[in-house]
Amino acid sequence: MSEPEPEAAADPRNLRRADFVVLRALPTRWSDDDTYGHVNNVVHYSLFDTAVNGWLIEASGVDIRSLAAVGLVVETSCRYFSELRFPEVVTAGLALQRLGTSSVAYRLALFGAGEQPAAVGRFVHVYVDRSTRRTVPIPQAIRTTLALLG
Question: What is the pTM of this model?
């Protein structure tokens, strides 16, 4: 089950907040800015991770840290288009790119004050058994929640 890619996906700079089912406000911190005066690249990945997992916990009502299956991040990517700076509040957009049996791929964007994304990313979780680390189906509570994205 996948949501069709918006036409803007051909050029991700054309993505807008309206292209995302979920929008989450994430404040930047003083320590997020690097020596060049903008949010450091690694922070973008932290914002993606916070947006996805915070939304999963809130939308499912389940503490994902207590599930028998763990969603491991196996792939990430980020394309940077413009700078973000502290004390900006960033809006993270989440959408479903692909939903499989044991994996989910998210399409993500980070927006500053403007309407164009400052960064666009991809984030893939593969669910594994907490103990054995063998691939397992996405837990039903998570799958039901993911259906809200598409």
Answer: 0.91
